[in-house]
Amino acid sequence: MISIEYLYLMLGCFVVTWIPRILPFAFAKKMQFPEKFRLFLDYLPLCILAALLVQNLLSVPTGKAPILNIQETIACIPALIVGIYTKDLMKIVVTGIIAIALIRFFV
Tens of pLDDT along 13-70? Predict the structure, then answer.
């Protein structure tokens, strides 16, 4: 059985994660930003996704050339397709998580 301290820990983790990651989006939707700043913000999801993608697709052993991670590369294909059609970061991330989970389960 789960102890009450463990439930408090999970609730605390939820709150600490929710406040800095979700709350700014809720406030930003109600604010008007200058056009140049909004254009800058429109590119942030793409930049974040590209940085995460490169970091996870390549592993760099010390003193050697980068190696392509095959499972992660295969998993990024459906995420890329979802990204092209939806341009929604949340859908891209969820698709990538589901794809890598299925690949690791069956391989």
Answer: 999 988 888 887 777 778 888 899 888 888 887 888 788 778 888 888 888 888 999 9
Coil, helix or strand at residue 19: helix
- For the question of whether the overall pTM of this predicted structure is more than 0.85, the answer is no
**What does the alpha-carbon distance between residue 80 and residue 66 come to, in Å, rounded to a whole number?**
22
Q: Residue ranges per domain, the chain?
A: 1-31, 35-106
CA atoms within 13 A on the CB side of 95: 20
Distance CA 53, CA 48 (A): 8
Q: How far apart are alpha carbons 2 and 9 in whole angstroms?
A: 11
Classify residue 52 as exposed, middle or buried by CB count within 10 Å of its CB (0-12, 13-18, 19+).
middle
